[in-house]
């Protein structure tokens, strides 16, 4: 029967893309849609409109063919463009409703259409009512699964699953819904939601908390975001947990609490497993650890044709495996290419796979284009502007805002004031937000970034300039996306990254259609692209993903074997490789050694076993045991050559430097301690780019002392600027050149951004990873559960004050914890426990209010 149906479908749709009349109509539609977008006169006659609707209706019914997803997406593109041109046209609304019902696209509420009653209309109504009932999301009143969401949702409860879907398909929503319904259905399990960046931890954890609301406390669950928040864990604990963590954090959690059970783990943005980045290796080790626990794992990735590749990481699990690649998208994007050199604009014709010229439309500059959106929409549209580098992102946003007036908006003025108070009065971002403009880069402080995203979602910030943080799962609504480069940094965007990026416009719950403007910038612009670059990205199919274990070629494995048999864990034979390749191979080697020791058969070990025999594995273990007298563990960030030195130094009395009676740290003691860490962990080899550089370490020591002493971010930045002011010679290093510090606003912003970057990437990542291991070994040697001078905890929370640390473990930010501490009317201490006033929900600080709302659900017992 299926074969017969496929033959019928082939007869109907096999050559539909070659239909000359469809091509003519579609080309005309693109022209007139463009006229509408740019405020020009537009006209489609009734005959063309009618036939376009017929083609759209027909294409929506394509099934079972390789091209069916494209046909369905094209159907939506046609009807959404028609709807945009002919607003409130009843015939278009009727056909649109038929199409969306046919495609199970219930992402937007449909208008009540008063049409002539007929038998067909009644039958359609009954069929769609039945489908809606079948697709109703469990636990909701009126929400409905769209497209293939229900199929994915059902499989989450049974199998190991890997699926791919467009950016707008609600992948993380499915996982949150599954976890919510499991908990409300009285399941008593732990769950993990793995995200690629720290920035997403707060977004996802807040959504999960609000999904469950009072159900968290009623069902005895807690959302946990870091290892420190689980300090009171024991197996008899009455609580179960939802862990929202990066792969590194979840790995360290399982190392610290090996008895924790994890029946279900959702790995979001799973394409990062294939990313050419040293952090990718943490995923392989994490999955190896989860296999021991027999966890059921669901991988979700955008726009990849072979999601089954990630199921190869699961080898010893007794669960069935299922993979699904979804190409249908509930929303559409319309690509334009806009050339700011020859002042031309073209629109992409997906049927002919080329850009067609728009002869009567011109825009002179990027800023003219943005202004035209504001003018034509009466300042209601929202725009995202993607830039390949941080300097371009900040520079363009500042240039664009120069000619704008302040909005005189209370919320934006308050945000600007808070940025000045938290960061610096000269920080560009404070001036920009007052004008409804902002930039979004990786090192922005969490509170500021959250506020920027909130005001953008509310519509008060209209234009947001951003780096590739847009591609890391941050969900922001946009009517228009402007892409200024086909690069990410200096590297070309991959087809997958490009599709992930353009999926940021046309978002569920915002708009069913979004415009993407691919800009050809002036020749002076760093990272500029040409039209052919964009044609290739639009026309290319999504590339199949590969596992980074492909690095373990025969030659690499044989060289690793020689190194290990010689007792060389630094793998000096690979020192000339690129940083990510060297560090990834090294992490794979550490995982491999742990697998041998524990008789685990991971995909990493299997790769090595192609060229290393079982006997040679035992010889390697014997050699390394003899040399380092230490076992291997699950921490692939640190090897036994490092831990053996660390344990020896701890035995000889090495400890973290202590605060004196005046709550001060001695700079020289701290610097000596960091130099000692360099000697123990061989930073000059493993971390030569940053903390392995002794000159940089002197500056890092200053920032580190201030950070763990609880100094406010603004004061840390002010002291950095002050130091440059008193030591101006060659004080600024920017774009690979040194400059004397001249106290200008632009140079102050360079210092501010450098300082923020050090806190985010050096303190909270580099130092934190090593201090975590130091603290672990100190606890083991001293036989204590907690250290009274735990620098890992101090650096994680940016203070050594116990009350502020407790507040942050409950869910408050560093800045909010400082605010509460300065207002004793909001807390109470009975000498055993701290309690907070529920009046915190009414304070003037917007971030503090939002944090309090979440914490009241997650930790209701601490409020009085």
Structure description:
Residues 368-553 form the Helicase C-terminal domain. Residues 152-321 form the Helicase ATP-binding domain. GO terms for molecular function: ATP binding; helicase activity; hydrolase activity; nucleic acid binding. InterPro entries: DEAD/DEAH_box_helicase_dom, Hel308_SKI2-like, Helicase_ATP-bd, Helicase_C-like, P-loop_NTPase. Keywords: ATP-binding, Helicase, Hydrolase, Nucleotide-binding. This protein is an alpha/beta fold and 864 residues long. It has six domains: 2-103; 149-325, P-loop containing nucleotide triphosphate hydrolases (Rossmann fold), CATH 3.40.50; 334-539, P-loop containing nucleotide triphosphate hydrolases (Rossmann fold, 3-Layer(aba) Sandwich), CATH 3.40.50.300; 548-637; 667-768, no CATH class; 801-862. 48% of the residues lie in helices and 11% in strands. It is built from 33 helices and 21 strands. The strands form five sheets. It has an eight-stranded mixed beta sheet with strand order 10-9-8-17-14-11-13-12, sandwiched between helices. Strands 3-4-2-5-6-1-7 form a seven-stranded parallel beta sheet. A two-stranded antiparallel ribbon has the order 15-16. Helix 15 (410-422) packs antiparallel against helix 17. The longest helix is centred in the last third of the chain and has 38 residues, at 745-782. The relative contact order is 0.07. The model has no long low-confidence stretch (mean pLDDT 92).
């Amino acid at each position: 029967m299926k074969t017969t149906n496929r033959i019928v479908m082939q007869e109907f749709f096999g050559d539909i893309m070659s239909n000359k009349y469809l091509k003519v109509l579609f080309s005309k539609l693109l022209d007139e849609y463009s006229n509408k977008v740019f405020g020009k006169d537009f006209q489609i006659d009734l005959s063309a409109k009618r036939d376009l609707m017929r083609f759209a209706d027909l294409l929506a019914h394509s099934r079972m063919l390789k091209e069916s997803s494209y046909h369905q997406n094209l159907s939506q593109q046609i009807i959404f463009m028609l709807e945009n041109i002919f607003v409130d046209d009843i015939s278009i609304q009727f056909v649109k409703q038929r199409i969306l019902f046919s495609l199970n696209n219930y992402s937007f509420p449909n208008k009540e259409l008063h049409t002539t009653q007929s038998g067909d209309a009644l039958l359609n109504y009954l069929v769609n009512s039945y489908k809606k009932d079948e697709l109703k999301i469990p636990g909701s009143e009126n929400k409905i699964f769209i497209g293939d969401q229900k199929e994915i949702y059902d499989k989450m409860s049974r199998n190991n699953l890997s699926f791919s879907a467009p950016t707008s398909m609600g992948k993380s929503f499915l996982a949150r819904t599954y976890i919510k319904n499991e908990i409300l259905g009285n399941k008593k399990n732990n769950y993990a939601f793995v995200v690629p960046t720290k920035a997403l931890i707060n977004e996802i954890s807040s959504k999960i908390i609000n999904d469950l609301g009072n159900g968290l406390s009623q069902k005895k669950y807690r959302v946990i975001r870091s290892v420190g928040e689980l300090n009171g864990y024991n197996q008899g604990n009455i609580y179960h947990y939802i862990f929202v963590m990066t792969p590194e954090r979840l790995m360290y959690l399982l190392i610290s609490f090996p008895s924790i059970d994890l029946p279900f783990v959702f790995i979001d943005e799973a394409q990062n497993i294939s990313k050419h980045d040293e952090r990718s290796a943490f995923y392989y080790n994490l999955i190896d650890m989860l296999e021991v626990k027999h966890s059921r794992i669901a991988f979700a990735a955008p726009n990849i044709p072979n999601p089954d590749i990630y199921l190869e990481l699961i080898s010893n699990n007794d669960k069935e495996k299922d993979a699904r690649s979804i190409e249908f998208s509930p929303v559409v994007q319309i690509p334009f290419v806009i050339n700011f050199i020859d002042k031309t604009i073209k629109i992409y014709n997906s049927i002919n796979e080329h850009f067609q010229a728009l002869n009567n439309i011109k825009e002179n500059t990027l800023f003219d284009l943005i202004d035209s959106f504001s003018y034509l929409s009466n300042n209601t549209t929202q725009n995202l502007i993607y830039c390949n580098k941080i300097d371009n992102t900040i520079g363009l946003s500042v240039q664009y805002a120069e000619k704008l007036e302040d909005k005189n908006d209370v919320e934006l003025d308050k945000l600007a004031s808070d940025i000045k108070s938290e960061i610096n009065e000269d920080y560009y971002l404070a001036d920009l937000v007052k004008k409804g403009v902002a930039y979004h880069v990786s090192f922005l402080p969490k509170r500021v970034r959250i506020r920027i995203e909130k005001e953008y979602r509310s519509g008060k910030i209209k234009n947001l300039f951003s780096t590739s943080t847009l591609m890391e799962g941050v969900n922001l609504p946009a009517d228009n996306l402007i892409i200024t480069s086909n690069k990410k940094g200096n590297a070309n965007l991959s087809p997958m990254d490009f599709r992930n990026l353009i999926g940021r416009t046309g978002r569920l719950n915002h708009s069913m259609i979004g415009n993407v403007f691919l800009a050809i910038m002036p020749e002076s612009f760093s990272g500029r692209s040409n039209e052919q670059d964009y044609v290739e990205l639009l026309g290319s199919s999504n590339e199949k993903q590969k596992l980074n274990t492909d690095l373990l070629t025969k030659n690499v494995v044989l060289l690793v074997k020689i190194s290990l048999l010689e007792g060389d864990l630094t793998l000096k034979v690979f020192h000339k490789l690129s940083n990510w390749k060297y560090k990834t191979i090294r992490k794979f080697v550490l995982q491999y050694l742990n697998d041998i020791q524990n008789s685990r058969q991971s995909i990493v070990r299997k790769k090595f076993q192609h060229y290393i025999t079982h006997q040679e594995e035992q010889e390697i273990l014997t050699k390394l045991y003899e040399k380092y007298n230490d076992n291997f563990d699950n921490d692939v960030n640190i090897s036994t050559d490092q831990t053996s030195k660390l344990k020896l130094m701890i035995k000889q009395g090495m400890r973290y430097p202590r605060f004196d009676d005046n709550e001060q740290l001695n700079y020289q003691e701290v610097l000596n301690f960091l130099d000692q860490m360099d000697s123990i962990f061989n930073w000059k080899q493993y971390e030569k780019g940053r903390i392995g550089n002794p000159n940089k370490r002197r500056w890092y020591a200053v920032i580190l002392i201030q950070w763990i002493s609880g100094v406010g971010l603004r004061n840390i930045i002010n002291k950095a600027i002050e130091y440059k002011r008193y030591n101006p010679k060659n004080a600024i290093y920017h774009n690979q050149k040194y400059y004397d510090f001249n106290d200008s606003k632009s140079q102050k912003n360079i210092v501010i951004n450098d300082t923020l970057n050090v806190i985010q990437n050096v303190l909270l990542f580099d130092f934190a990873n090593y201090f975590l291991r130091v603290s672990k070994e100190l606890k083991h040697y001293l036989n204590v559960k907690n250290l009274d001078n735990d620098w890992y905890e101090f650096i994680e929370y940016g203070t050594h004050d116990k009350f502020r640390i407790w507040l942050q473990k409950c869910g408050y930010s560093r800045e909010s914890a400082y605010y509460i501490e300065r207002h004793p009317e909001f807390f109470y201490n009975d000498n055993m426990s701290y309690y907070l006033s529920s009046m915190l929900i009414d304070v003037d600080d917007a971030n503090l209010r939002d944090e309090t709302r979440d914490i009241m659900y997650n930790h209701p017992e601490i409020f009085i």
